[in-house]
Amino acid sequence: MTYLAGEGRTNEHEDQHLVAGDPAIMTMYGDDELDRATALAIARDLDEPHRVFGVDVTQLKTIQDPETGETHKERVDAHVWHCSLSLRAEEGQLSDEQWSAIANDFVDAMEFTEAQSGRAPARWVAVRHGLSKNGNDHIHIAVSLVREDGTKVNVHRDRQRSQEVARDLEVKYRLQLTTSRIAASTERGERPSERNIAERAGAAETKARRLERGVRAAAGAAQTEGEFVRRLHQMGIVAKPRFGAGRDDVVAGYSVAIRPQKGEPIVWHGGGRLARDLTLQRLRDGWVDSPQSASEGVAEWQATWRNPVRYKPVNPGAEVREPTPELWQQYTADVSRLRKQLSDVPREDRATWAIVAKETSAAFAAWSERVEETPGPLADASRVLARSAQLRKHQVKPKPAGMASASGAAMLLLMAAKGGTGTMAEAILFRQLVATTRALYESHTAIQDARQAAQIADAMGANLDAIRARLPQIPAATKPATDRAATATLDPAAEAASRVLEAQNGGTTGRASNPLPNRIEPARPATPAVRPERDDRDR
């Protein structure tokens, strides 16, 4: 770890940082600067199972005497497994997010984690520290070969298996296929078709996106940790806790999986693996923090631990209630008030804008959960907004006092949006959400974050046209104070939400529109009246 975090043999290392790791490591160190002190702390945590259980993980190694040339067998320590994954220089560079996904897939396929091994996980990290001397983008993976329960990791045929896994990942992530790996596997008759690999990868990606959508929606809609666990159960997601060492009353992390059909294995995903902002530590920042809520949360986690698939909620709460017209009015007003407050938030205040993006992302995730059988445009919008909200740990700040919230919208949509053409109340709330998204787009544009602004534009533009078309037309109400005829056909929830729109928008409603501004370009004269001098052209 100190070598990976250091300067390298020829000072080639730069911007050393973690891109992936087991959930506990990423929760504690994922956003930290990877200096020597942090590297040593990570090393101690990686080494803890080996140190605590005192497991003998050694192997015989042939040692050659440099003077005589004679060789002898010597037993050496071998409790750390290390490899690097590298691209050819001509392939360019991947993002941290792409490397994180590759690293997680790699350790899963190597059966270092519980996802495919069905055994206790081993601790691991993936480190990125710039290009190699030859210009190759790469990461290093270090794994403790003693699992959390003190058992050893099986590394039989690890070289061959790692090559096979790397080949599959090359196909999945559309990287250059390594000729030597293809030839070797073809000779053994083991090479599956690229179509089969792609199909498996596509199925795994769909499950991961469903889990991310569900966790994000449940977390945004929940007010407490216990409610979060119960909402996951409602959506067909099984969850289990990761307790603190030697405890069953302190929850340090969690894993989730799609509820399996009878006879199917459970494939677990840690929250931090789904997205950086979905670790339990980050999620807790948005929930009520009190002794009572903490105790109720532990009770729900303990119930899932005993039997994740057959878990029954201990203390059902808000997740089983039906939303009232008053709640529609309240939460639509919250989103509308939030949108107006954003005009006073400095564009450089990334922490506050990230909170708004996270809450709005949860609302779109909740909507997708109810109307999209598989993650579609709404889920894409949620994912893009969530990515724009991911900050380093030192950048995260509490929400400003008095600022309204979009969290209630996630709760409403999770309970009320049940497919079909949608309701009038949903159309009104949708209008407020897209207006908030427009403010987020403009904030990224203002600070010249072109990449995030473009991604929001792509996700919120034409991709959501089908959603907009499915929602009912919002009647215009030009005289809100005296004439209620325009809203006479609305259900109580929609009428309550409509009153909010009228109050906030001067009595005008109308169909929700694209949240992004139209591009306006001035007309160019056919022939300039005066030909500019060269200096003017340059200027």
From TrEMBL:
Residues 71-175 form the MobA/VirD2-like nuclease domain. Residues 187-198 have a biased composition (Basic and acidic residues). Residues 184-205, 493-539 are annotated as: Disordered. This is Relaxase. It comes from Curtobacterium citri.
